Amino acid sequence: MRRSVLALILVVVGVSAAQGQGATGDDRLKAVASFSILRDWVQNVGGGRVEVTALVGPGADAHVYAPSPADAKIVAAAKLIVVNGLGFEGWIDRLVQASATKAAVIVASTGIAPRQAGTLGTFRDAAADIDPHAWQTVRNAEIYVANIRDALIRVDPPGRTVYEANAASYIQELDRLDQEVRRAVTTIAPARRKVITTHNAFGYFAADYGIAFIAQQGVSTETEASAKDVARIIRLIRAQNIPALFFENVTDPRLLRRVAAETGARIGGTLFSDALTVTGGLAPTYIDMMRHNIDEVAAALK
């Protein structure tokens, strides 16, 4: 009898413990990334220890994003907030303040040499001197990942081994990707390494990989190309025989279609600049995005 009672007590204790664990919910570290590319990196480094949410999701434009009350709740519940910096998220400081969050906020681009907007064949955007699209070269992506690793370790020291191992493995993948991009560029004749894009998001790519990107808009999609800028691009295409134009997944393609119609330049496809796609799309991860972009560019310029 006493054994039966003891067994019953153990069962009750076990059930109560299980119910208590269920009541506490997911014990993963809650992180928030400002946009989808950062989310991909945080997820790769954090693995199963981290639950990460992107405020600006797949296919959405962070330049023109307007945070919602629901975003403030997500930020308030987080322990880590990862932002790009370099002026990319003009709305993030107000959102963090409004949420009254106690989360650590890290600028993932820390340590990257900012690039001045308007160089390397692009038109200057007087409203924004710094180009925030530093992720568009894989070498910079490795700096982002290292910063994210270090931030996760600071917030969650017991996860150090996991974060270090995940980051090291992912950086190896990035090394292979960087070599792949460079090999693809060598297949393009130097005289043909120039394209037209919708907005000035590929300056870091241009500087590192040697392909000139001429943009209709500045570094933010909030700016619009003037009639003078469009006319200048049309003259440039004709004078330099620029082979291809590319749409971007976060911008309006109508103006580029007009330029293509007036110049006869080939439309080479869609490049992914500021956002990934949903799972199952062409660019659900950063590595997929960079591989897609260089494949599209190389195919159009050969």
List the helices and strands and how they pair.
Blueprint: H1 2-24, E1 29-35, H2 36-46, E2 50-56, H3 69-77, E3 80-83, H4 92-99, E4 104-107, E5 115-116, E6 130-131, H5 138-155, H6 160-186, E7 194-199, H7 203-209, E8 212-217, H8 227-240, E9 244-248, H9 254-263, E10 266-271, H10 286-301
Parallel strand pairs: 1-2, 1-3, 3-4, 7-8, 7-9, 9-10
Antiparallel strand pairs: 5-6
Sum up the structure in keywords.
302 residues; alpha/beta; Rossmann fold; 2 domains; 4-stranded parallel β-sheet
| CATH topology title of the largest domain | Rossmann fold
Query: Whole-number radius of gyration?
Result: 23 Å
Total beta-strand segments: 10
Instruction: Quote the distance from N terminus to C terminus.
Output: 85 Å
State which percent range the strand residues make up.
15-25%
- The spatial strand order of the largest sheet comes to 2-1-3-4
Helix content: 40-55%
Shape summary: globular
For the biggest sheet, the summary is: 4 strands, parallel
Count of runs of 4 or more consecutive helical residues: 10
CATH homology group of the largest domain: Nitrogenase molybdenum iron protein domain
The computed structural class is: alpha/beta
